[in-house]
Model the fold of this input.
Amino acid sequence: MDSLETNETTALEQSSEIKNEQQVEPTVEAVEQVEVAEQAEPEVEAPQQEPEAEAVEQEPEATEAEQHIAEQTFKTKDEVVARAQEIAQSGEAGDRTELNLLKQLFYKFHNAEVQEAFKAFVEAGGEAEKFMPEIDPAEPVFREAMQTIRDRRAAIQETLEKQKQDNLKRKLEILERIQQLASTPEEANKNFDEFKALQTEWKEIKAVPAEKATELWKNYQLYIEQYYDLLKLGHELRDYDFKKNLETKMRLIQQAEALAENPDILQAFNQLQTLHQEWKETGPVAKEIREDVWAKFKEASTVINKKHQAYFDALKAREEENLTKKTALCEQLEAFSTEGLKTFADWDAITQKIKELQAEWKKIGFAPQKMNTAIFERFRQGCDAFFEKKNAFFKDLKDELNSNLAKKKELVEKAEALMESTEWRSTGDILINLQKQWKEIGTVPRKYSEDLWKRFTAACDHFFEARQVATADVRNEEKANKEQKLGIIEQLKELAETQGENVIAQVKELQQKWSEVGHVPFRDKETLYKEYRGLCDKIYDAYGVSQAKRRLNNFRKNLAEKVGNAGNSLDNERQKMQRAYERMLAEIKTYENNIGFLNAGSKKGNSLVEAMNKKVEKLRDELNLLAQKIRAVDDEMRED
Done:
């Protein structure tokens, strides 16, 4: 059967094949009835014609039984080739049915080998669309043998056609001579021996062109009747001729009746045609038994003809049933939908179902000849349509896989380029981003997947393991700094609950220690600083009231004099101080942000952080003082 999978792919499911089926159905032809002239005495009435059966020449057909026998006889392709070579070398024309069977079997074995090779190729990981079958060394040998046979048969046919023309020419000459012999009674009586010799020669001449056969035979019977009408012979000669003809016809009747026991209906029918041809060439019998003899032969022929007709009626019924089955398979095939098939498993599931339909198709015999090609084309188109869509899906998938492969190769190259970097924070962030991108990219061809993944993870692991080793000391130092700052916070908590004149001095000392301590783990930095700053503010608020009052009184005196001398309003003074307060607050925030980005791992960086912390503490003191001044202005404004 012709191939139904392109590449499963094909692909897949490049893939199975269905050969286009060919069928030749014999035509049942009714046996034509004709009349045979019988011999008559010159003085009696011209005899009536006797019905005859027209011979039907048919090409030999390969029955299902013959095909089964051939498959049992030739079990391998080599046996088929050997048989073809044997016929080619024998010099014979070969039987047409056998030659057709040999051809069918050879390509059945050949296609089976191609299918096995394709299956092995795909299972080995090959792409279905790239499969190329190897050249079969037996095929040119087989073709050469079959061509030799065809050439010989063509030559024989040409010789046979020439012989038919020669036979036609000679029979026309015989007819002309018999017509001459039947021209007068004298000629008929005088040339009886020549007449019998012409009859014998007529029987010995076999095939003539089919289109001339019936006309020749009718003319022959007509001239024979005319001759016997004129013949002046004795009853003894006529009876002897009738007797010999009767013996021949009775033998033909027995042979025709025996054909009813032949189990091969087609063979029996073909043999019957041969008997009818001999019957036509046999002369007449006595007039009184002529109809009975013909009736017996006709009855035996009818039995074979009915069996022949019944055989093809049954064959047609099977073919109609096969058409129904094949139509159902087409409908099942056409009902499959490729919508929503997104994975290998989805396509493979449908592919297996279609292969099951193809296997079922192969088990079903021929459909009626007029529908056989059409139903096959419908089934093949359905299969082709599916496998074309499958091939397109896998082509698009292949393009996507190749695109993903290029993207992942690029990520691998980037990771490998960064694996030796010592920029621990920035490179670490880049690699983490590359890992996120890797997860977002789809799959790649299986043969590259594992190797790429190993390269990518090896590059990432190399960097992070190196960073782990390099930053171990820094992390330990940060943990120690954290413990120191937690100790400072505990001391500030104790001072917040203590009353004494030297509390502020102790706080300042602790603040100095705080600024000298290096970085802590980044995730703890904000929490520790907020707690530390809150305790400092709480202590300063508690112990700075009396001093603030003294400074506030002096500020108020100076403020009153300043306002009186300059003539400015308290409101203008307050606005100046408020703007200064806001600038100072923004400056403090800027310093604190910058401290967070400085690296205290080096001596220079640590001293810079210490200086900035001192600057921040000073600014906070000035900020508190400015806030108190603003409140003093507010109090003065309320008193006024």
